[in-house]
Amino acid sequence: MQGRRKIQQSNILICGVDEAGRGPLAGPVSAAAVILDASNPIDGLADSKKLSERQRDKLAPIIRERALAWAIAYAEVDEIDRLNILQATLLAMRRAVLALNIKPQQVLVDGLYCPQTGIPSQAIVKGDSKVAAISAASILAKTARDALMLELHEQYPHYGFADHKGYPTAMHLAALREHGVSAVHRKSFRPVRELLFTSLT
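Above: the chain's sequence. Below: its structure in token form.
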């Protein structure tokens, strides 16, 4: 998914990048890249984890409307299992940055590592609380992934994805033990891997 508004004059085009869904046992990992418009600021931007679901859902369409450019991308479950979660997350981030309709001049990424995009990049620890563009990216990544997990809930209702979004809650682990591993579970993650091993022995 991507969007674009008419570009305006600015000193340097900075792209903020963040991810959502590294910890869950199911579903893809998402990443978003956002270039904000300095002339059209957005109030209330913050680390998505510090916002309520209602706040995130209110801010997400505002970000898509006011940003100069934005893009959301994913790394799927099979890619997570094949590459590991860190490399899959970087892949999703790379896809998001490269999907932007406007090429940024600098990429600022939340965390410790940067995706390989060919654009000057900097990783910023707790960047989602320090840089507005990263905060915006965190909100888009989180809301997009949550919406996708609601779709997966329709396909696999007995796992309760609508409630826990794939995270390893007691409810989710109990459902895994009862119903087994689905096609959207990350088989390389220990609770899922151990359940698969147990079922084979």
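Helices lie at 53-66, 77-83, 85-99, 132-155, 161-164, 170-179, 190-200.
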